[in-house]
Every structure is written in structure tokens, then in C-alpha cells.
Design the sequence.
DNA sequence: AGCTTGTTGAGGGTTAGCCCTCATGTGCGG
DNA sequence: CCGCACATGAGGGCTAACCCTCAACAAGCT
């Protein structure tokens, strides 16, 4: 069974390649970023692609985006997404966008090589595989609302940059939006995070704190 | 050359083991936590131990602590510490506590397997190896330890309240000081935390982030 | 077609929080 | 006594970030 690996962390990617080879897979390619991954898949579609969610250049969702593109051009390629951290947003997106042949595992929680190889095969065969802790989180998350779930994708991007201590001007430049648009998003974030104006509050800092608590 | 690996992330550890075996090392043991690591080293001291800094149970500094213990009981065992993130505190501790036969590399920045194997050998041979980015950071950091140590007691109080998302007005009320005094302290905090005015920076948020990182 | 949501952004107005200079008083150490 | 650090705070000036209303377009759903 042919597999392609995508992860910018060389040590991890090369190590995983060797593990999969030992388990009987044929690693037909390795990519360090999303563009290389798409190239490799177009050239020679594997049974399954094992993809790190965060890859260059932005280290945000390039892995998932590439996975979506792969699903579009090659619907039969299984997609196993690996992540360093629990992220229910990514998991939710995966579960809703992909109906079959998809997996989402945490790098640090793969405790058994044979099990891992089995998961890769299952995904290649069209099954869905998801880390059990994520299942629990998703179920548990239904009740307890993460305030950040109320934010749109764009708003979350804006807030992530705010949380890096970026100014509105920097956000405007980095997201290629006008200052007015940034202000509109910031205001919406405050509203959705239930941060009304208060004499004693520094709402931007409070929004950043909410973001950090959620990550 | 004999090597022991310690990392609770099975996928990473097993993959790294295979890479080292291919490079000619003999992996005489693998540990998932610090206690197992110490057991293995005591039983059969290797030439070098490759250790993840963060391991169970606390995922804080168990790797370094175990390394210190190994250096105590087997001073000739090389110690290569691996970390997921740049952390100059850990690096500083390593450089001060261990004079030779020590290395500190970032998992995500190992870009070349042969180079990695070479680093492992160098550490086993008593050399010191450190990620170049960390060198740069350390050089820049020589002067400052924890940035917050430069702050006066009063400034730390002010910053703590800022980090709760409080406004200057609230600080003024809660600390029974004038608005002008609050401003003076905030300005001093920015200066001491080396946060000069920058078009792209939101300095208050950056100061809060520095506080949170330090806590 | 109508409605809703999300994205983008303009116009106009306000102010909290920043910036600078200057100053006083206290405590400590040489 | 002098110098320094810390704490406090005044006067004055500036602007990034906030606030509001309004609007256009696209996509998805009924």
C-alpha cells in the first residue's frame, strides 16, 4: 500500500517513513510543505496521505487545506491528519468536510506502532479514524461552549494575531485588509466574546486572554 | 555506539530509533518517562542518551532533571536534549550545569539526518552541540534573565493587574494611585521589558504576554 | 425571490492610553 | 553630604483604537 508523508519536521517525517516501511507500506514520497504534497499526489496518487496539519508557510491549517484539495482531485486518497495538539476546531472541520477515508490523530498519543499502521490502513480503506481523547472532547464540548466557537474563521485569524501582540495596523498589512475591516472584526470579536465596554476593562487584553485560555 | 532514547511520544521515539540504527548506532533501550530512562542507564550505561526535555508525569523538565541525574551517576554518558520549542531557560540551565558532552536541539529544526547523527556522535564524544537559533537567542539574552526581574515590586503589581485585562482607570482605583502614576509605571514597564514603540506592535498585549510567560 | 450570515469597508466622531518633560520626597549606601 | 533608585504625579500633546451607522456583495438555504 502506497503512502505519501507531509511534515516539515524532518526528524519526525523520516522516522515515521521508516516505521511505515517496516509495517509493509511503500512510502512513495515525502513533502515538507503543502505545495510539495499536492505535487506528489498529482503525480502519483497514493492510497493514503499522512499529513501534518500545520505546515509552512503559515503553520496554521495548510495541512487541512491541502487535504481538502487532495479530496477534490483524488477522492479515493485516504487522508490521515496528524496534529501536535488537541484542536477540536480542526477535528470538527475534518468530520464535517470529509465523510470517509479520513483520520485525525495526535502525534504524542500514538502509543502503539502496529495500531498506528492499522489506522493508516483503515483510512486508506475508506474508514474514519479519530483519536479517542478527541472524541471525548468533542462530546464534552457540545455542552460546554468554547466562546471562540462563536467566532468566524476570519475573526479567529484576527484574534490569533491580536494574541501575538500585533497592532491593528500590522493585522491590516498581514491580512491584506483595510484598517476599517480590522476594526469591524475586532468589534465583532468583542461582541461575540461578550466583552461589553466597561470602565475597568481593557477589552483587547481580555479578548487575548480568552484566546490563550482556549488554545 | 550505544544510545538510549527517552520520549513519551512513541511515534517520534520509534522513528528516531530507526533513523539512528540506520546511521550505525545501537539503540540499547527506549524509555517513555524519566524513571524508565534512569533505570535503563543504570543497568547498561550508553555512550549517549537522547532525551526529550518534557516527559511525564509533569511534562515540564523531567528530561533535564533526569539528565542531571545521569550526569551525576555516569559522567561520561553524553546527553542530547531535544525540545519542541525554543526555550532559553532550559538552554541556559543546560549550559551552566553541564560542561561537556551535552547537546540541545529542536525537534522541528533537525533538517538533515546525517547532521543529526553527527550531532549525536559529537555529544557522545564529549562535545557540546546547540541549535544555532538558540545560540543567537542566548547571546542576545546574556544580559537579561527573566525580564520580569528587572521590574520593581510596584511595577509587577501594575503588570499583574494589566494581565487581568484591567484598564488604567481600574488600576488607578485599585492601587489608590493617580492616573498619571499608572501611566508612568506602564511606561517604565515597557522600557524595562524592552518593548519599544513599533508600528506593528501592541505593546500592552506584549507586556501581558511576557507576564503570562513568566508565570 | 427573500432572508441570513459572512466579508469587506466607507464616513465620521471620541477618548483611553500612550508620549514627553519636569518635579518632589524618601530611603539607602558610600 | 551626594547620588541613585523608587514612588508619585502634574502639565501638555498626540493618535491608535475604539465607537456608531450605513452599505455592497457573495453564498447558502428555504
Sequence:
Amino acid at each position: 500500500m502506497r503512502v505519501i508523508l507531509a511534515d516539515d519536521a524532518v526528524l519526525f517525517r523520516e522516522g515515521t517513513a521508516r516505521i511505515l516501511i517496516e509495517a509493509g507500506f511503500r512510502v512513495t514520497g515525502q513533502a515538507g510543505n503543502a505545495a510539495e504534497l499536492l505535487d506528489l499526489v498529482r503525480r502519483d496518487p497514493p492510497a493514503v496521505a499522512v499529513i501534518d496539519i500545520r505546515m509552512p508557510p503559515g503553520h496554521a491549517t495548510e495541512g487541512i487545506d491541502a487535504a481538502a484539495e487532495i479530496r477534490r482531485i483524488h477522492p479515493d486518497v485516504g487522508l490521515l491528519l496528524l496534529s501536535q495538539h488537541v484542536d477540536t476546531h480542526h477535528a470538527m472541520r475534518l468530520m464535517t468536510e470529509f465523510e470517509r477515508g479520513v483520520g485525525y490523530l495526535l502525534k504524542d498519543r500514538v502509543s502503539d506502532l502496529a495500531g498506528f499502521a492499522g489506522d493508516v490502513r483503515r483510512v486508506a480503506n475508506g474508514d474514519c479514524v479519530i483519536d479517542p481523547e478527541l472524541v471525548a472532547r468533542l462530546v464534552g464540548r457540545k455542552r460546554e461552549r468554547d466562546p471562540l466557537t462563536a467566532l468566524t474563521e476570519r475573526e479567529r485569524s484576527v484574534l490569533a494575531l491580536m494574541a501575538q501582540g500585533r497592532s491593528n495596523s500590522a493585522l491590516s498589512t498581514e491580512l491584506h485588509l483595510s484598517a476599517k475591516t480590522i476594526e469591524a472584526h475586532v468589534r465583532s470579536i468583542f461582541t461575540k466574546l461578550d466583552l461589553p465596554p466597561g470602565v475597568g476593562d481593557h477589552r483587547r487584553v481580555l479578548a487575548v486572554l480568552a484566546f490563550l485560555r482556549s488554545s
